[in-house]
Write a structure and sequence with these properties.
With 307 residues, this protein is of the alpha/beta class. The protein folds into two domains: 101 residues, 3-Layer(aba) Sandwich (Rossmann fold), CATH 3.40.50; 180 residues, NAD(P)-binding Rossmann-like Domain (Rossmann fold, 3-Layer(aba) Sandwich). Strands 6-5-4-7-8-9-10 form a seven-stranded parallel β-sheet, with helices on both faces. The protein has a three-stranded parallel β-sheet with strand order 1-2-3. Helix 10 links the parallel strand 7 and strand 8. Helix 5 crosses helix 7. The model has no long low-confidence stretch (mean pLDDT 94).
């Protein structure tokens, strides 16, 4: 980012997403936007930016960007779909281990003066079945790492070819969503946001899970019907959950806050020093290329602006 600022006139507005009027003013005359997941890049916003050539998303998801509107306006949309995948996959395994071994609760117990070993009898990952919802790069990397623990892998993704290299290499078995929910000991969600997936994992689907199974979401909060998850946990329908993302961020007070078998973290799956360096380096490279008359590497619609 420092190198980009040395070459171009860069306005750094980290809080502008919270004020639509301020955001519209900040981006009106810009030739390039670099945004994260909080900034809502709407058709109306794009229409006001007459000089815009590229929107660079520092991250993987595009649910906060009206890609169709950008394409119609001839604006390049670029993203970084793989630069933070490894960090997310590693955190997913970390959350699985934390749930299986009751690590957060045991930590709090000892720090408060306790030493009740029997209370924290945990379980192993070895021999268990992992259900992966969404078998893109993150799902694939998670499956490969789970295999190293001796886990069996089921995967749900209606857009993945069962004969594709990631499926064959990871030895994952593709199955219908309800089958994955029912047959897995751990279910990890890596599905994108959007109309197709909003509320997809609801109370009825949690009822299909084993009462000994755990649910982990490191994808998009809106994919999970949170009241349904709370009900399933309160009724003991599932053993526990770990959530990195929520439907509303930051979330308000919730019954989840008081549950010892629930781990809550603030959307940090991609937040490692290594991943953030790769992400920012990638978007800066593409912005520099497009504004110099070249082509973006991580483009979503087309490599050069058409306006």
């Amino acid at each position: 980012m420092d190198a980009l600022q040395a070459e171009l006139d860069v306005a750094f507005e980290p809080q502008a997403w919270q004020d639509p009027a301020r955001l519209a003013e900040a981006v009106r005359g810009a030739r390039a936007w670099i945004v994260r997941n909080q900034t809502q890049v709407t058709a109306e916003l794009i229409a006001k930016a007459k000089r815009l050539e590229i929107i660079a998303r520092a991250g993987a998801g595009l649910d906060n960007i009206d890609v169709a509107a950008a394409t119609s306006a001839g604006v390049v949309v670029a993203s970084t779909p793989s630069q933070n995948s490894l960090s997310v996959a590693e955190l997913t395994l970390g959350l699985m281990l934390a749930l299986a071994r009751n690590i957060p609760a045991a930590d709090r117990h000892v720090k408060s003066g306790g030493w009740d070993r029997l209370r924290f009898l945990g379980g192993e990952l070895f021999g268990k079945t992992l259900g992966v919802l969404g078998f893109g790069r993150i799902g694939f990397l998670t499956a490969r790492r789970a295999a190293a623990f001796g886990m069996h892998v089921l995967a749900y993704d209606p857009y993945v070819d069962p004969d594709s290299v990631p499926v064959v290499e990871s030895r994952a078995i593709l199955a219908e969503l309800d089958c994955v929910m029912a047959d897995s000991d751990f279910v990890t969600c890596h599905l994108p946001g959007g109309k197709e997936t909003r509320g997809l994992i609801d109370y009825a689907r949690f009822l299909r899970m084993k009462p000994t199974a755990f649910f982990i979401n490191v994808a998009r909060g809106e994919v999970v019907d949170e009241p349904g998850l709370i009900r399933a946990l309160e009724e003991g329908r599932i053993a526990g959950a770990a959530l990195d993302v929520r439907a509303q961020e930051p979330p308000g007070a919730s019954p989840l806050d008081r549950m010892e078998n629930v781990i809550l973290i603030p959307h940090v799956a991609a937040f490692t020093r290594e991943a953030q360096h790769r992400v920012v380096a990638s978007v800066c490279r593409d912005v520099r290329a497009v504004l110099s008359g070249g082509e973006a590497v991580g483009y979503v619609n087309f490599p050069k602006p058409k306006r």
